[in-house]
Design goal:
Chain A is of the alpha/beta class. Chain A has helices at 46-53, 83-89, 104-114, 120-133, 137-140, 153-166, 183-196, 209-215, 233-238, 243-249; strands at 6-17, 20-31, 35-39, 63-71, 74-75, 90-93, 171-175, 201-205, 218-223, 226-232. Classes of the chains: A alpha/beta, B mainly alpha.
């Protein structure tokens, strides 16, 4: 089904919150340098699935994970794998823009400083590079030391993307990154996604179907914790095989 | 309809009267202390030791003593209290029995009368550990007394830091410790400082905890080590008001001391307010 190299792969992934079985037997291949969209009705487990991909799900008290998630063939849930190392390779952008209450510069440099990079010149360079990638450099270059909270919502979200890019991840997970943004800011983020997929593998959770259709190469439809259907985006949207997928995509429920 | 409006008007006036009463009582108290004490305050009063059997001279050693006591108390209790709060909020699961127990202990400790801390301090620090009646014993006793305040306010400050800051940091590959040091503590700083200053203010004003553990009515010169006893403003006031034979002569000194203590505590609150204000302005979320 999928021709390009597989970057990330889940095998029989199950996630529980206490007694709640949230993700059920999820087996999915995520191709490299493509955008994979995960769609499905609210509460179907999309976000939980996404958070299991960088082990953020482990932060929820009572969360349990079984099965495998292979990043370049290695299981990220293996006992000797350091989760901070995984999160460095698999970055994340959240639903609500969440810059730190620090300067724009400090925000983007954060992940680098945490990694022990302290050389000012190198930091400046990497911060500039990341901000350029998200198209924010020209807008903020002369006020890098001002608080990131002064920025508009859309700018904040692009700053958060720059912050994630700065540590040079291989995969970027996006959890409904445009749900709190206006249409213009959303369009900017979507344009950015096309740029980013040249270098990164992107998994985006969205319940905006048009967005999934516009930006993604592959789409996975999730319902009640299960992966119902997965394939090229055109196929899922034009010729869904499953009845539930069809009903969801044509707006019969959601 | 008319009835509801009348009721509302009545309630409004009741609230207004209540505010007026509490404000005027506070105002009168302040006015009383200032009018009785202001005349004696001078540079000499603030910088000279007492003379002639406490009927003349200043209160310099008591000011220094109080400053030493609260500084030492906060130096001891802030790290302890903050570390406990970090453990409670960041590292333990919120439902665990141990956390509930610690929280219960902290809140109960907050309700313990200060004289009980004083007695404990005497038994434990002065006698059992052999620190004697000293600056150290008194500061330790004070730090125990303000510890619950520090823990409770620090816990609140840490809890008020939104979880999405923690998530953003962890998602960037930071460890939990890095997240706490680099993101959570800076964001919680105004709240932590407020708690510390509340503790300092309380420690500065209390007499009972230092009564048997370190305060003396008079000493020559200032303490030279933490094992020396100290003079302190509230204790000075207490002795002047209750035990001095020459009431009319020491009365202005009494009120002067009260005024200085009041200003000191006010100043501490003011510093806390300024720090809070500056941080709040910079960091909104």
């Amino acid at each position: 089904m999928v021709k390009s190299k597989i970057k990330l792969q889940t095998k029989k992934l199950n996630v529980w919150y206490g007694n709640m079985h949230v993700v059920k037997d999820f087996t999915l291949k995520i191709p490299e340098k493509k955008i994979t969209a995960v769609i499905g009705p609210s509460g179907c487990g999309k976000s939980t699935f996404l958070r299991s991909l960088n082990r953020m799900v482990e932060l929820v008290p009572g969360a349990r994970v079984s099965g495998e998630i292979l990043l370049d063939g290695e299981n990220i849930y293996d006992k000797d794998v350091d989760e901070t190392e995984i999160r460095l390779r698999i970055g994340m952008v959240f639903q609500k823009p969440n810059p730190f209450p620090k300067s724009m510069y400090e925000n983007v440099a954060y992940g680098l400083k945490v990694r022990g990079i302290t050389e000012e010149k190198k930091l400046r360079l990497l911060v500039e590079e990341s901000l350029k990638k998200v198209g924010l450099w020209e807008e903020v270059r002369d006020r890098l030391n001002r608080s990131a909270l002064e920025l508009s919502g859309g700018q904040q979200q692009r700053l958060c993307i720059a912050r994630a890019l700065a540590v040079k991840p291989e995969v970027i997970l996006m959890d409904e990154p445009c749900s709190s943004l206006d249409p213009i800011a959303t369009a900017k983020i979507e344009d950015l996604l096309f740029e980013l997929k040249k270098d990164y593998t992107i998994v985006i959770v969205t319940h905006n179907l048009q967005q999934a259709a516009r930006v993604s190469d592959y789409t996975a439809f999730m319902y009640a914790g299960k992966l119902i259907e997965h394939g090229r985006t055109e196929e899922i949207f034009e010729r869904p095989k499953d009845k539930i997928t069809q009903d969801y995509i044509t707006g019969r429920f959601g | 309809m008319v009835k509801a409006k009348t009721c509302e008007r009545l309630g409004f006036w009741a609230a207004r009267v209540a505010i007026l009463i509490s404000l005027s009582i506070t105002g009168y108290m302040l006015f009383y202390i200032i009018s009785k004490g202001a005349s004696i305050i001078s540079w000499d009063f603030l910088t000279k030791p007492p003379t002639s059997g406490m009927t003349a001279g200043g209160i310099f050693p008591a000011i220094v003593g109080t400053l030493l006591l609260v500084t030492l108390a906060i130096v001891i209790s802030l790290p302890l209290g903050l570390a406990s709060a970090i453990y409670l909020v960041e590292y333990s699961s919120k439902e665990s029995r141990f956390v509930r127990l610690v929280e219960l202990a902290v809140y109960s400790l907050n309700g313990v009368p200060s004289i009980v801390f004083g007695l404990f301090g005497m038994a434990f620090f002065v006698k059992f550990l052999g620190f004697g009646t000293s600056l150290l014993s008194a500061s330790l006793t004070l730090s125990l007394m303000i510890l619950p305040t520090i823990v409770a306010t620090s816990v609140e400050a840490l809890k008020s830091v939104p979880d999405h800051f923690r998530e953003a940091s962890l998602a960037l590959g930071a460890t939990k410790g890095q997240t706490i040091v680099r993101v959570v503590l800076p964001a919680a700083f105004p709240g932590i400082i407020t708690g510390a200053m509340l503790g300092v203010g309380r420690a500065a004003g209390e007499t009972a905890p230092i009564l048997f553990t370190g305060a003396v009515f008079y000493m020559r010169g200032l303490p030279t080590s933490i094992f020396d006893p100290v003079m302190a403003l509230p204790f000075h006031l207490f002795v002047l008001a209750t035990e001095h034979p020459n009431i009319s002569k020491v009365e202005p000194i009494q009120y002067g001391t009260a005024l200085v203590l009041l200003i000191l505590v006010l100043l501490i609150s003011l510093i806390a307010a300024v720090i809070r204000y500056r941080y709040r302005r910079k960091r909104k979320w």
